């Protein structure tokens, strides 16, 4: 058919007065231009007709793979292959009168086809990643690093093919040449190589997943993992800033992962308040009677008083001296109250450890530490529960004739001076 078209154009050009040589050459070029025009027409037919049909088919099928492929333009880029293949097949016929141009046009066509294949593979890998992200396995085994490694390999292969095509050398020859630059390549791809190794270790050991809450103070990261890629890990902090960590740093350095807390459904509460040591005292009978009015302490006080009374009787201790024998203290009763209060709190987990203990006294008083687990793990709700508990504790301290330790402030000094000057028995 092409030969018939060439002969028709040649005859028409001869009729117009062209010389036989000029008519043949012009007919050959016209034939090549017609092939280009035909390629453009076929491309638009593929783009607007075939792709539209594929979209309708994709909407009717139950599988979502075709939808993802269309979304990432895999089929649209495959349409670019049609003109390239058509030109490659027609060049030897349409340009047979220009043998010097055939190698150059074929080379450019090969380059075009290679680049289109590169774009198709890139879109396909993006579609695979997008589809994988919809599965439940994506949280446990992120594959973005592997996808990026695949893209790097494809780009390197395409680069070698293009170079070998431009210089008319075998790709194996180019690979041999790259071996001499292995040290330079290792330096250039140091971060991707370390990231790839780190990604494998993170995935194999299940050290971190997308959606995990991690903390790494060195990089200012304290939030949710958004993405694990070949060279970086993105973390959205609580102030909505984004911290970027090197992937390999999660293997070579320490970080804190709160996934275990979320999986267990409880979160640890560990905080202390300082009690003024000068306010600690033995309980008098009036104090015990007042404490008995607190419902959750009635059983404890009665049981403890009976135990201490029996002990003092058995050991014939003289109770007329207050310091003799065993007696309850206001700070001991306070600790017992806190234990009962936390045990009855609806948002404190009773199946986990619960401890109220006294730490080593310091210049800031006697620390009373609360160690418990709340049923709220989400940050905002957890902080609210913790604040509510310590609001109550701070408010209840004076009921046990105790004082919270606090360094003197300006108001304390003013009150002290006011008392000093109001006393008439002090020297002027």
Quick structural summary:
The chain has 428 residues and is an alpha+beta fold.
Keywords:
single chain, 428 residues, alpha+beta, SH3 type barrels, 5-stranded antiparallel β-sheet, elongated
Structure, described:
With 428 residues, the chain is of the alpha+beta class. The chain folds into three domains: 2-134, no CATH class; 203-258, SH3 type barrels (Roll); 267-414, no CATH class. Helix content is 59%, strand content 11%. The protein is built from 18 helices and eight strands. The chain has helices at 2-15, 20-60, 65-71, 74-78, 81-94, 101-133, 137-140, 144-166, 171-179, 182-188, 190-204, 249-252, 259-264, 285-292, 298-314, 330-343, 379-396, 410-422; strands spanning 213-216, 221-228, 232-237, 242-246, 256-257, 267-275, 355-358, 366-374. The strands form two sheets. The chain has a five-stranded antiparallel sheet. It has a three-stranded antiparallel sheet with strand order 6-8-7. A hairpin with a 4-residue loop joins strand 1 and strand 2. The longest helix has 41 residues, at 20-60. The radius of gyration is 41 Å and the shape is elongated. The termini are far apart.
Layout of secondary structure:
Blueprint: H1 2-15, H2 20-60, H3 65-71, H4 74-78, H5 81-94, H6 101-133, H7 137-140, H8 144-166, H9 171-179, H10 182-188, H11 190-204, E1 213-216, E2 221-228, E3 232-237, E4 242-246, H12 249-252, E5 256-257, H13 259-264, E6 267-275, H14 285-292, H15 298-314, H16 330-343, E7 355-358, E8 366-374, H17 379-396, H18 410-422
Antiparallel strand pairs: 1-2, 1-5, 2-3, 3-4, 6-8, 7-8
Helix pairs in contact: 1-2, 2-5, 3-6, 5-6, 6-8, 8-9
């Amino acid at each position: 058919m092409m030969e018939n078209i060439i002969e028709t154009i040649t005859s028409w050009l001869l009729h117009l007065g062209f010389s036989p040589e000029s008519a043949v050459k012009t007919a050959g070029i016209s034939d090549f231009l017609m092939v280009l025009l035909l390629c453009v027409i076929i491309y638009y037919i593929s783009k607007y007709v075939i792709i539209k049909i594929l979209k309708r088919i994709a909407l009717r099928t139950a599988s979502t793979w075709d939808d993802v492929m269309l979304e990432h333009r895999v089929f649209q880029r495959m349409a670019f292959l049609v003109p390239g293949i058509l030109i490659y097949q027609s060049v030897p016929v349409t340009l047979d009168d220009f043998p010097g141009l055939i190698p150059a046009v074929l080379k450019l066509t090969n380059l075009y086809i290679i680049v289109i294949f590169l774009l198709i593979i890139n879109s396909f890998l993006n579609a695979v990643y997008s589809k994988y992200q919809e599965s439940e396995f994506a949280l446990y085994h992120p594959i973005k690093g592997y996808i990026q490694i695949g893209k790097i390999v494809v780009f390197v292969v395409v680069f070698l093919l293009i170079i070998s095509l431009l210089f008319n050398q075998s790709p194996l020859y180019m690979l041999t040449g790259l071996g001499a630059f292995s040290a330079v390549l290792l330096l250039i791809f140091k971060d991707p190589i370390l990231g790839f190794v780190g990604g494998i270790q993170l995935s194999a050991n299940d050290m971190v997943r997308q959606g995990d809450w991690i903390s790494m103070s060195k990089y200012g990261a304290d939030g949710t993992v958004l993405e694990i890629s070949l060279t970086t890990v993105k973390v959205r902090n609580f102030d909505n800033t984004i911290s970027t960590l090197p992937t390999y740093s999660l293997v070579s350095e320490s970080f804190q992962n709160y996934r275990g807390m979320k999986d267990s459904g409880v979160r640890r509460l560990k905080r202390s308040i300082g009690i003024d040591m000068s306010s600690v005292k033995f309980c008098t009978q009036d104090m015990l009677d007042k404490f008995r009015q607190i419902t959750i302490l009635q059983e404890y006080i009665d049981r403890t008083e009976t135990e201490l009374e029996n002990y003092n009787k058995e050991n014939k201790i003289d109770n007329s001296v207050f310091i003799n024998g065993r007696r309850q203290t206001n700070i001991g009763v306070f600790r017992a109250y806190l234990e009962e209060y936390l045990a009855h709190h609806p948002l404190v987990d009773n199946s986990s450890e619960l401890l109220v203990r006294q730490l080593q006294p310091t210049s800031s008083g006697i620390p009373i530490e609360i160690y418990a687990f709340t049923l709220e793990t989400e940050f905002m709700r957890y902080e609210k529960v913790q604040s509510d508990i310590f609001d109550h504790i701070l408010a209840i301290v004076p009921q046990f004739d105790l004082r919270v330790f606090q360094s003197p402030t300006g108001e304390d000094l003013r009150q002290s001076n006011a008392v000093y000057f109001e006393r008439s028995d002090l020297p002027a």
